[in-house]
Amino acid sequence: MNVKHQLLALCATAGFLLNPVLNADTTTEPTPKEILSQPTWKLGEPIQFMDGKLVFDAQERLRMEMRNNTFDFNDSMKSPQDDTFLLQRVRLGILYKPAEWLKFYASGQDSREVFSNRPNTPFVLGSEGDNTFNLREGNVEIGNLQNFPLSAKIGRQVLSYGDERLIGGFDWNNFGRTFDAAKITVQATQKLSIDIFAASVVEMEGYQPLQGDHTWQFNNSDPSHDKLIGVYATDKNGLVSFQQTEAYFLYRGKDGNDPNYKLTPSAADNFSYDVDQEVYCVGGRVKSTSPGHLKGFDYEGDFAYEFGTGGLPATGKGGRGLENGLTLSAFAAHAAAGYNWELAPWTPRLGLDYAVASGDSNPNDGKSESFMNLFPTNHKFYGYMDTFAWKNMHDPSINLTLKPNSKITLRLEQHVFFLYTNEDAWYRANAVTTVRTLNAAARNASTYVGQESDVTATYAYSKWLNFLVGYSHFWAGDYVRQTSPTRAQDDAEFLYVQTTLKF
Question: Is the CA virtual torsion 286, 421, 426, 468 positive or negative?
């Protein structure tokens, strides 16, 4: 669907949303004044009218970030990423529910990076850039699973499965992630549901020099060149009374590295949004749902295997895609266990985690073993500094969570990072950008990259206001020194403060 058709469809949907008389009984319909004078609303909750059929929501998020050496690990260099800046995001949404089985939802988003030395163009030199007010979601949902075991959701929407290691909304990012998708949900039994979907990720256009500075563009998807198809089954306490069990089959087909972003129209370097790939992924996940059932213990496990074939070679600043003629065979896994002292002061939980994802151990054997991370929310898992993806890595970690009261949560994490193989690159959280050039020095270096310590504190002041403070320190390892042209092995720091206001 081109931009013109999308805008016409959006206008038509908006017209329907704002015309409740189409589904009202004209003999009892209240006047507009009566509708607006009697909202059902409490502070911190969405604003509701018409007995909850018309709902408005909003979110304002502001985050200060201070980064030092998080890209180059070199004190002697002052890169654009070594900076202190603000990330600001506003979201406005409207929901209309004319019937129990029918919902319309649309939301817009405005995202800005302020006081930064990085470019305004998204994804260039690590920038989150500017994306002026644009359509974030716009969908219709048909069906009510409580009354009938089938529903459908069509349009721009968030897709989130499991703990988001493969498909997630990536909400930490200032843009987040949405898809233009059609999704069918089958409630096979009371505890088993199956999602079947076809989707294409929405690309952030931002202000691109190729289109002229400060030119508004509609955020589009490109289903003819980048598609995601999947079947995802979730069993909640059916197979095992204290466990959620999930199984899935996913396919992503992308036949190029577009979109590419540039600093200037004449710039030689492209910064790839993603890389060419044709991936089939099959896997499963288990997660305990009741620590009380296990006398305070909990656990989680994930495993995914990928196969496929390659298309065009990866170019620009992107990582290794599935190059011409390569056959993909790759895997990723995660295991976690913890113990909860539920009756102790501050209700501590101590957890152990281990994540691994294969890398390509031989670039000359006609196949690729580099796990393709698809559409993850990696920020939550492999250190908050975002220096790693679920790709060519080992990450054993330990964490401690404390809750002094119902409003405050403290969390401490310690990660130890190794490359799965140094014949493949070290990939940042987007699973595309490489931290170091894959050259002879990198291939001969140690696989020990370093350690990261993360401390976070969240304060839920109320339903409508919460705060997050975090500090991360990366202890650079042998790989950092041995791959640096100047033999630099300097630690990195990351400090952030975030405020979220919503209703």
Answer: positive
CA distances from 422 to 42, 221, 310, 416, 438 (A): 55, 34, 21, 16, 8
The closest alpha carbon to 406, from 464, 346, 340, 469, belongs to 346
What pTM did the predictor assign?
Answer: 0.87
Show Cβ contacts of residue 326 under 8 Å, excluding neighbours closer than 6 positions.
Answer: 309, 310, 366, 367, 368
pLDDT digits (tens, 9 = 90+) for 55-108: 999 999 999 999 999 988 999 888 888 899 999 999 999 999 999 999 999 999
Please tell me the number of Cα atoms within 13 Å of 405 on its side-chain side: 4
∠ Cα 348 349 353 (to 5°) = 155
258-300 residue pLDDT tens: 766 665 555 555 566 677 889 999 999 999 998 888 999 999 9
The CA distance from 154 to 104, in Å, is: 10
Q: Is residue 320 pLDDT above 60, yes or no?
A: no
Measured CA distances, 413 to 118, 350, 382, 391, 457 (Å): 29, 10, 10, 20, 12
496: CB partners within 8 A, 6+ apart: 63, 64, 65, 66, 468, 469, 470, 471
Q: Which helix (H) or strand (E) holds 218?
A: none
